[in-house]
Amino acid sequence: MNTGPFKVEVLRADHQRNEFACGDVDLDRYFKTQVTQDIRRHVAHCFVALNSLGQVAGYYTLAASSVLLAELPQALAKKLPRYPTVPVARMGRLAVSQSAQQMGLGSALLADALVRVFQADLAAYAMVVDAKHEGAVRFYAKHGFKPFSSQPLSLWLPMNAVISLVA
Ligand SMILES: CC(C)(COP(=O)(O)OP(=O)(O)OC[C@H]1O[C@@H](n2cnc3c(N)ncnc32)[C@H](O)[C@@H]1OP(=O)(O)O)[C@@H](O)C(=O)NCCC(=O)NCCS
After folding, report:
1. Probe ligand 1: pick from 59, 112, 139, max atoms within 8 Å of CB?
2. What does pTM read for this prediction?
3. pLDDT tens string 88-100
4. CA–CA dist 25, 120 (Å, integer)
5. How far is the CA of 136 from the centre of ligand 1 (A)?
6. CATH number, domain containing residue 128
7. Domain limits at 130?
């Protein structure tokens, strides 16, 4: 999948992770030291954006997850089956290297994740993202995500909103 001058690939062993720096030490450390363990344990998938030199300019992780039906607005919840939880896809981490920020790559990676979930064989009612800070909340809100009232750093976007965007 191509995004402008970047291409998005599933993370492989030959991708260079050591130089990645997005300005957030936790996101950098996770990418350098932990993500491959999570992939091996089947708790996350990781996708990377490569620039034209083959350097990693951004990454995100995706995993299956669930939210409590009671967390959704009542008007939507009453249209869903009365199970206690609703299946969702979770983008646990999203980071763009400092040298590639503010060029639209974060937005392109978010769109890439939404399209993958939309096309996946597993059902997901919504995409859920975990924002690390208020700035990230504004980034996701700009793309239509709404915060859960009980957890303002966790935001969601129903897949039917994605379907209209993809269509
Ligand atoms: C947040 C992040 C993924 C955005 O990626 P990006 O490629 O820079 O974002 P884009 O160029 O697609 O979009 C930029 C838009 O998001 C907004 N934005 C990005 N980071 C922001 C921040 N920290 N605070 C406020 N707004 C922010 C910009 O204002 C800009 O809006 P505009 O187009 O209206 O000017 C990237 O800045 C990053 O990796 N930051 C460090 C790690 C991090 O904070 N990750 C948060 C995910 S939990």
Report:
1. 139
2. 0.94
3. 999 999 999 999 9
4. 31
5. 6
6. 3.40.630.30
7. 2-166
